[in-house]
Design goal:
Blueprint (H helix, E strand, L loop, with lengths): L11 E3 L5 H5 L16 H10 L6 E3 L8 H19 L4
Parallel strand pairs: 1-2
């Protein structure tokens, strides 16, 4: 994966997601809690980091069914693990 963030990128919104083939086959979902999905979000975030992106990152969670407080708590825990791995602490 290669990311060319460039100077125009000012903010980023992420979420858990399945990969394209699963979504096209009707077996996957685009927007999920950060702790779910088959898309390699860690690799994407690592590429952004290597490209020099240091701006804000928000969590996209529109339309996710279920308990929002549970999704937020688990997504924040997933974010902390991702951030530690990006920064070489895990």
């Amino acid at each position: 994966m290669s990311v060319d963030a460039g100077p125009p990128l000012r903010a980023l919104s992420i979420n858990g997601s399945d990969r394209g083939p699963e979504i096209k086959a009707g077996t996957g979902n685009w927007i999920q809690p950060l702790y779910r999905g088959t898309f390699a979000i860690l690799g994407f975030l690592q590429e952004l980091h290597r490209a020099g992106y240091r701006g804000p990152i928000g969590l996209q969670c529109y339309g996710i069914p279920g308990d929002a407080a549970v999704h937020l708590a688990r997504s924040m825990a997933a974010w902390r693990r991702l951030k530690d791995r990006i920064n070489g602490r895990a």
